[in-house]
Amino acid sequence: MSEKKRDKHDEHADGIVEDRKQAPPLYFYILFYGLIIWGIGFSAYYLFSGWSSEKEFEEKMAGYQETYTQPNAAAQTSGQTATAEAAAAASGINAVSLYNSNCAACHGAGGAGGFATDLTGDYAYGKDADSIRTSIAQGRGAMMPGFTDSLSSNEIDALVAYLLKL
Q1: Which residue of 50, 81, 84, 95 pairs with 88 in a disulfide if CB–CB is 3.0 to 4.6 A?
Q2: Membrane spanning segments where (predicted)?
Q3: Coil, strand or helix at 143
């Protein structure tokens, strides 16, 4: 190694000398400082926008509760709810509230279909009263639970009458 380079740089190991004459390219500076500016802007927006995951969760839960705990307004106006309630009136059971509390989470409001079967169309096991009663009471496969333990036979009959009117 020459004496000229040794005099110029004090720090070296094993004869390797660092030469710092060449600066990084311009795009490196643009990307580096651009990232810093973007990070500051994003952080300011996140902090001052008022968004929070808790608020988003509460809004989604309020929408879910509004959708699945209240009777479907379209079904009430079309008379489907009135005929189902008339069929269950003899036993004094509100079939719409039974449906909303036990079935609507999977089958959707008014039977329009959630992730489970659409109850307004054809049924896989038949759309007669006996097949529907069997499906509700015993369940179907792993996806549809049986409700014999949680619903009385009068409540199951009220649900059958309601589903036949959909």
Answers
A1: 95
A2: 26-48
A3: coil
104 or 77, which is more confident: 104
Q: Where is 18: in which H helix or E strand?
A: none
CA–CA separation, 140 and 146 (whole Å):
8
**Residue whose token pair is 């309020």:** 62
Q: How large is the angle between the packed helices 95-102 and 53-69, nearest 10 degrees?
A: 150
Q: Which two tokens stand for residue 116?
A: 């489970």
Q: Measured in whole angstroms, how far is the alpha carbon of residue 16 from the centre of its chain?
A: 60
Could you read off the pLDDT of 20-69 as tens digits, one per residue?
778 889 999 999 999 999 999 999 998 999 888 899 999 999 988 887 77
Domain residue ranges in the chain:
3-48, 72-165
DSSP SS3 for 141: coil
Residue 24 amino acid letter: P
What confidence tens digit (pLDDT) does each residue in 102-128 have?
888 788 777 777 677 777 777 778 778
The H or E element spanning position 109 is: none
**Model-level pTM?**
0.45
